[in-house]
Amino acid sequence: MNTAAIVALVATIALGFATGALYLMRARRKRLKDLHLIAALAASGLVLAAVIAAPPPSLPGPAGFIPIALVGIATAAGWGAWKLARGSKSRGELVLFAHIVLGIAGFFVFLAWAKSVSAG
Description:
Blueprint: H1 2-24, H2 30-53, H3 65-79, H4 81-85, H5 89-118
Helix pairs in contact: 1-2, 1-5, 2-3, 3-5
């Protein structure tokens, strides 16, 4: 379960990187953005399932709810960035920055959590 979640998170980050690069080049690819959202939703579900199905950690590490919260908030921030910005480009970009930071943090915290569960 952890491997599937990690692969889905890596795919989500790769698609997000491609979407972000196109955004910076002022090119919009709606299908790529939609694919990124679908991958993020799948990754969120897999992270949730991995944490719920996991045995207690054998090493000290982050609590299981932390990667769930980070990935969930990152997904919500990415999906609603322009709605949350209410038409302000600078606010929208700030929300997208938060989306990026939370998503990457969620990935690394999930890796740390998965290591604490699988070690032993």
